Target: Helix-turn-helix transcriptional regulator
Amino acid sequence: MPIGDRLQQLIDALNISALEFARQLGEKRGEKIYHILHGRLKPRYETLEKILQTYPDLNADWLLRGEGLMFRTLPQTPLSALTLDDRLRNMEFLLFQLNERVALLQQTNDLLQQELEQVVSQHKVINLSYVNHRSDLPTEG
Model:
């Protein structure tokens, strides 16, 4: 998932506008953020650093690579203060992340299975070659 999409998810989770998000980062106008959200720009290091400083509970691994949960800790808001829609959105997001993680693990598993099959196949060839070579040797007697 592109970083622009992750930023949009963050903005949605914070329940603010892209302009308000830009202002919280110290930007007077939201042009840079809008360009990042629409894929016309990639965020610079300074922008990423501002985001992580502004939102200290934001998971840097999630922001940079899309790995893990969006926030390192749960919001301090009591669960009862969250609306049902908020809870459902959080659950949908967690399920989405889990599905992505499962897909990645399945791809990794498939690759490892292929590598294992290649190693086993090569081992059989080497073993067969060794047996054939040994049968060519004269026997003592």
Remarks:
- Residues 23 and 29 are 7 Å apart (CA to CA).
- DSSP finds six helices and no strands in the chain.
- The radius of gyration is 26 Å.
